[in-house]
Protein: PorV/PorQ family protein
Amino acid sequence: MPKQLLLLSILMISAFSSAQSSRKYSNEFLNIGVDARAFGMSNAMTAISKDVNAVYWNPAGLTQLEDNQMSLMHANYFANIATYNYAAFAKPIDDVSSFGISVIRFGVDDILNTTQLIDDQGNIDYNRISLFSTADYAFTFSYARKMRLQGFSYGVNAKIIRRVIGDFGSAWGFGFDAGIQFKSNSWEFGIMARDITTTYNSWTFDEEQLETIRAAVEGQNQSIPEDTEITLPKLELGIAKSFEINRDFSMSTALNLNTRFAQTNDLISTSNISMTPAFGFDLGYINMIYLRGGVGNFQTITQLDGSDNIGFQPNIGVGFVYKGIQIDYALTDIGDQSASLYSNVFSLKIDWQFFR
Structure:
């Protein structure tokens, strides 16, 4: 077994053995995804991602870059209450290796702070209302390299997490991802292990600011939250196949199996492991116009009468590519099959090789 595969195996075993002592949900903003193309395909990208956005989906895909690339994305969530932004850059180092960097911000801005709304005399004073923001940031540094085994490549991510809740509290975190891709003719396979050593967040809180919350909520015994959280590892398995329908039309199909090492409401769930599939397709016309669709996020939803239903999230998207500029759009959660609201996602990708 190559040294790279051995190292990845050791890290994954170490991560999964610590899963029982970690939180089920942490740093969930990093599970949303990036790139409107991916959203249109329900995030079934582990095997098929091979551009700048591979810094998120599977860094092993960066080895397929032929020149520098840049990607930008913007989306609004929860009826425009939250904003989600992403930027990435990647470039080849040589014929066998590449690197990339990215930044993600998920935030809610201009939140009303009403803890000082009532003054010491019990009077309501709207001038005492202030604003604050809560935001989550992720800074990722990626490296990818082709392996000596024909068709194989691997990649690793180092992630720095920054989370801020106004002046009340903030956290720093650090973690690693690792991925492998294999390509054979029209078939592609991928494995992505997120938070392979678990991702550790360390919180600090302003006790003086928290005291204002305690004072504003009489009769409540508010305590300072835990100052550490550990993100459980996750494993994503992907398979994809490309077709040439005729001279003008081509299609790529992709299937993901997303795994958490905890009991959740995923479609397949046990006390130690939960899994849910995602499927997407990408239909291209003359390598310029693309139509995309997918379905994923299958969840078991308990109804008010105690019965269980299967919820899922269908997505659609379109894309346009011309001389190195790619513009993509996705509409997520169409049909309102899950609890989330409709979201419009836009992204832009620029490929340097067309401007040389």
